[in-house]
Amino acid sequence: MKTVVIACDVYDHNKPKHSQEWESEETIVYMEKTIQSLGYDVVVLSDAKEITSVLSGIPKKNRENWIVWNLIEGYFSSSREAYIPALCEYLGIPHTGSAASVQTLTLDKYKTKLYLRSFGIPISDSTLITNKSDLPDFPFPVFVKPNGEGSSLGISDLNVIHNKNDWNEIVPNLLEEYSPLLVEPYLTGKELTVGVIGNFNQYQVLPVAFVETPSGVYHEGIKSKSEFLESLNFFVPPSLYEELTQVSLKIAEVLEVSGYLRIDFKLENEKPYFLEANATPGFSHIYSTLPMLWEKFGKSYKELLQICLELGFLEYKNHKRFQYGKDQC
Length: 329
Known about the structure:
alpha+beta, D-amino Acid Aminotransferase, Chain A, domain 1, Dna Ligase, domain 1, six-stranded antiparallel sheet, 10 helices, 13 strands
């Protein structure tokens, strides 16, 4: 029997606000039971020492029968979403999701934008700032957000900066906690989200959806584990749907993602612009967007977990990035 290690950070409202990105205990328990129903043994680990000890202790000849479900997101480090992929690759153990290189790139919104723009992906202007005097070259209003956070951390309605007075009032506080900041023109249209499932050259795009929010700003309160205010609207015009499907496929191929990816866009004058790509999306059956998109596809949460595990084993079997770890066995 194959074994799944769910490597996770568990959300606790008493811990630093950066733990907002972590999964709830209810989600982890539900994932554990669902994966067990698929016929796997499951081990849930949330302590770094336990994770490294267990993985390094797996008999070398049996590592191909283990797989790590990567839910570790940590905080502060620019490579924090790459911890598990890098460790698994080094030890020659399968894992879900993309390689460490993909995780590190996509966590940096600015670098991801620069990279994708070079391939012709539609992207608005943007700049990176570390000082409040670093005013952007493009006009107000602008949108300011942390360059290396997920779950809308550091984002509120106040992040829409209309003038220099707003800038001087808001930006210093954001810089103190989240430097560097990404600054981009404020796009006035609706936000959309797209899910992609698959390994390189074998991707499928999930249903495209508008993200409906009370104020139009996708802020951290909306992504709260206790007060989930986001809703998805799947009534997307056919031409826009097709455009985003093709752009999302290209993004997945250019990034060479594995397993799964969620991509966010926003409209301006009915034209979609890439916002960011999330290579470690949430997997809650309650509040996470990717499972919602998948279920709109007409398939169950159980099937989603099954295909993600299968893709992880396929990646391990076929991708050369695991060869060094395999050779050490």
